[in-house]
Amino acid sequence: MGKKHVLVLGCNFAGLTVARFIREQAKDNVKITVIDRKNYINFIPNIPIEVFNGHNPADNLEFMFEKFLKHDKSEFIQGEIEEIDPVNRSVTYKPNERDGSPSEKISYDYLVIALGARLAYDKIEGFEEYGHTFSDTFYGNKVREYLYNEYKGGPIAIGSDRFIQGKSPKLPKIPVALAACEGPPVELGFSFADWLKRHKLGDAKIITLFTPAKTIAEDAGKKILNQLLPIVNNMGFGYINDTVGIKRIYKEGIEFRNGNSLEAELKIVFPNWEAHEFMKGLPIVDDQGFVVTDLYMRNPDYPEIFAVGDAASLTVPKLGAIGHMQAEIVSKMIANEVGEKKDVDPLNPMVVCFGDMGSHKGFYMHTNEWWGGDISVLKMGYTPYLLKMGFKNMYYTLGGKVPSWGIPLSEFVADHTLV
Ligand SMILES: Cc1cc2nc3c(=O)[nH]c(=O)nc-3n(C[C@H](O)[C@H](O)[C@H](O)COP(=O)(O)OP(=O)(O)OC[C@H]3O[C@@H](n4cnc5c(N)ncnc54)[C@H](O)[C@@H]3O)c2cc1C
């Protein structure tokens, strides 16, 4: 009998890591194929650091991953995924190096969906003309151009649109979030305030953070927010909650769904994280198109299908660190399927996040309080910044195969310099 074929869809954070962990755990017992429309990783969390240092983020944050897959004897196909057929265990994709290729079909024994999400900026009225963001290198560079060439020192608004979290009776119970991921707006607030100071253009007082929820970054848990929000307040940030979402962006500001508006020269927004169009309505997804899984990241109706990262319904908030934990679980689940005996613990979701605060300082957060746990660690100072940069280097060097000892090590070495 031939080797079981594992097909991994998507090769950014979650996809590359899971493909590499599957090879490590399942050894030679599987054939692995990975498909993505591009052949490089976009190292998204470090985009703000590059922008505030005046660099085009594309120069330093895109790295080619094919050599790592080759080293693992895994195959890579560059193509646009068009359709998943869970009943016939096949995926349709179009090779996309040149225009004009017909679609191809590929079958699988195990499918791992790591396709991330669609960031729905196109559904925010006025974004194209008046909005800015930091969630990819194109938009990061656009903000950089604006900051260094056009910015007039006016008010800055930073926040999220409403996230519509998927529902399904087949999902394990998890809390409901009204914003997809609010680490980035909080981090940007701090690093932007520092950039303004360094450029003698002001400080936190000209920045307003806004959230569609009752509290920004609710998933950080009450204990951390009780430390963080007074710092935000003392630094002089404006803060608006309960916006319900963004109605439109216009030249002079943002209008919210609760009827209020905020004046701003620079409108930095994060949108609704939506599922890809071709995922919606499949028999493996929730009512929004995210993949339904149990806590072992396995679909209950199609047990040969797994999901990791932002594409999974259980990934809330949409954090790379949660995708990493899921990648460890899925690699062991598949290893067990092909005869390698592994102990697997179910997903114990938590926020693990390194944020930049500018001037070589950062924060480190590790908490599962939002999910009912008792971990709650917040550290601020120089070491979290070094660890954030160190994580990028480790990720590049190891080709996404970052060991999980990264978490306790960070807590051990993080300093306590409060900013
Ligand atoms: C500014 C910012 C800062 C952040 N900071 C942090 C942080 O400090 N820590 C943290 O843990 N998380 C952070 N995040 C979140 C993190 O970036 C995401 O959770 C992570 O990128 C999700 O990884 P993923 O692989 O699941 O999805 P993605 O990174 O979205 O990757 C999906 C992959 O699928 C491919 N793909 C999609 N559709 C198709 C298709 N039809 N055909 C072929 N290929 C396709 C894409 O090309 C891509 O390579 C941050 C996010 C932002 C925006």
TrEMBL record:
<dbReference type="InterPro" id="IPR052541">
    <property type="entry name" value="SQRD"/>
</dbReference>
<dbReference type="Pfam" id="PF07992">
    <property type="entry name" value="Pyr_redox_2"/>
</dbReference>
<protein>
    <submittedName>
        <fullName>FAD-dependent oxidoreductase</fullName>
    </submittedName>
</protein>
<dbReference type="InterPro" id="IPR023753">
    <property type="entry name" value="FAD/NAD-binding_dom"/>
</dbReference>
<feature type="domain" description="FAD/NAD(P)-binding">
    <location>
        <begin position="5"/>
        <end position="135"/>
    </location>
</feature>
<dbReference type="InterPro" id="IPR036188">
    <property type="entry name" value="FAD/NAD-bd_sf"/>
</dbReference>
